[in-house]
Amino acid sequence: MIIETFPVGLLQCNCTILGDEQTREAIVIDPGDDPQEILTRLAKYGLSAKQLVCTHTHIDHVGAIADLQQRLSVPAAIHKADLFLFEKLDVQAQWTGIPVPKPGAIDQFVQDGDAVACHGVEMGVIHTPGHTPGSSTFHLASDRNILFTGDTLFMQSIGRTDLWGGSHQDIIRSIERKLMTFDDDTLVIAGHGQSTTIGHERRYNPFLK
Question: Quick one: average pLDDT of 174-189?
Fold first, then answer.
């Protein structure tokens, strides 16, 4: 399995490429910006992107969708509860100072219990609302469980809940009831900043005390 996470855009969203070494097919998680960098990383491994998926639809996590679709003709998927945010990228741009991106097309909706897959790569979908209504975590089960939590869970922090559709009660419930059920050694690749583990957050995250 090829797993490469790298920051993109003004707000340094963590974009991840998951690729299969045999089929050379890949999934791109949170293509937030810098489409050329994403294309360069795919080319470095000889990978063909088959799916774009977003943990949520804040502008810094979806900004490169249109450019990648134009170059690669690849579908994009989000949770339907976040569609209203995707349709208001112009308003989000006003909040953040990020230029309004071309919106791209949402081709599929994911929901809790679904799988996102290409040949050789499959992730489970866990609906983890709170940061946004449609925030979702992607679970990669391999030699070690990996959770791509977007802006739900960070190292010793959690996502903001004071933005459109946010809920502190929901995000805490999502983390405690859905993410903290995983083993301590489960790797957490967050939407920004460094990675952590479920065990570390169980012990040291002040929002979960």
Answer: 97
Supply the Cα-derived Rg of the chain in whole angstroms.
Answer: 16
Query: Which amino acid belongs to residue 23?
Result: T
| Angular region, 68: left φ>0, alpha ψ -120 to 50, beta rest | alpha
pLDDT in tens, 46-99: 999 999 999 999 999 999 999 999 999 999 999 999 999 999 999 999 888 888
Answer yes or no: CATH 3.60.15.10 is held by domain 2-208: yes
CB 140 within 8 A of CB 146: yes
Give φ, ψ of 48 to 5 degrees: -115, 115
Q: Which residues of 9-39 are buried (b: 16+ CB within 10 A; e: fewer)?
A: bebebbbbbbbbeeebbbbbbbbbbbbebbb
Buried b (16+ CB within 10 A) or exposed e, 88-115: bbeebeeeeebeebeebebeeebeeebe
Handedness of CA 95, 99, 105, 106 (dihedral sign): negative
Give residue 17's pLDDT band: very low, low, confident or very high (50, 70, 90).
Answer: very high
C-alpha to C-alpha distance for 133 and 131, rounded to whole angstroms: 7
